[in-house]
Amino acid sequence: MKETSEHLRKLPIDAIEESVDATPAVACGEGELLLVLQDLAKAVDDGTYIPQTPTTDNPALSDDYVFNTSDENAILKDLSKENFVAKVRDVGKGAEKRKKMGYPQEYLYVFKYPCKLMRRDAEESGMSSENVLIYIKVNDRKIPEEKVFIVSFHKNRPKKR
After folding, report:
1. Total-model pTM
2. Which of 47, 82, 95, 151 has a CA-to-CA distance to 53 between 20 and 30 Å?
3. Cα 24 to the chain's mean position, in Å?
4. Is residue 11 within 8 Å of 116, Cβ to Cβ?
């Protein structure tokens, strides 16, 4: 990723030592992963991907950090094999409904992206930026519609063990 933003800076892949939860993991070949990355890059270029809907558990990065759609697009286009964590079986609410409609099992592709982001509360907190591991989950849905869905795009929250 080109350093085009003063509020977002890419960090080395191992800069943040947090675990990224990706279960139940299933096998994913390199060819399959490369196709997902190609589909994702094309969806970003075409402006056709479906962005994450922020929730209470997974708020938008822009709630706490200076972060916009251009930043999200830059990160999505910069994802590579080294950012890949795992392929997981979709067990979300819609998965069972799609199976009942006769659609095949869907899978989600989990990525991590370490970066430094500028905080929105910099004046109050005294911290201008923070190292953040972004957790990204992508559904490259081929059936029934050929769309790429960003299921999650938020600050990683490691599970307490």
Report:
1. 0.91
2. 82
3. 17
4. yes
59 within domain boundaries: yes
Angle of the 69-78 helix axis to the 30-46 helix axis, nearest 10 = 150
Name the CA radius of gyration of the chain, rounded. 16
Q: Phi and psi at residue 5, in whole multiples of 5°?
A: -125, 135
| 85 class by beta-carbon count within 10 Å (0-12 exposed, 13-18 middle, 19+ buried) | middle
Q: What is the mean pLDDT of residues 41-64?
A: 91
pLDDT tens profile 66-99? 999 999 999 999 999 999 999 999 888 788 888 8
Of 103, 95, 84, 89, the residue nearest 40 (C-alpha): 84
Q: What letter does residue 80 receive in the DSSP assignment?
A: -
* Spatial separation of the C-alpha atoms in residues 97 and 151, rounded to whole Å: 17
pLDDT tens per residue, range 120-139:
887 666 668 899 999 999 99
Q: Which domain holds residue 16?
A: 8-155
Quickly count: other Cβ atoms within 10 Å of residue 67's Cβ: 23
- Give the count of domains, the chain: 1
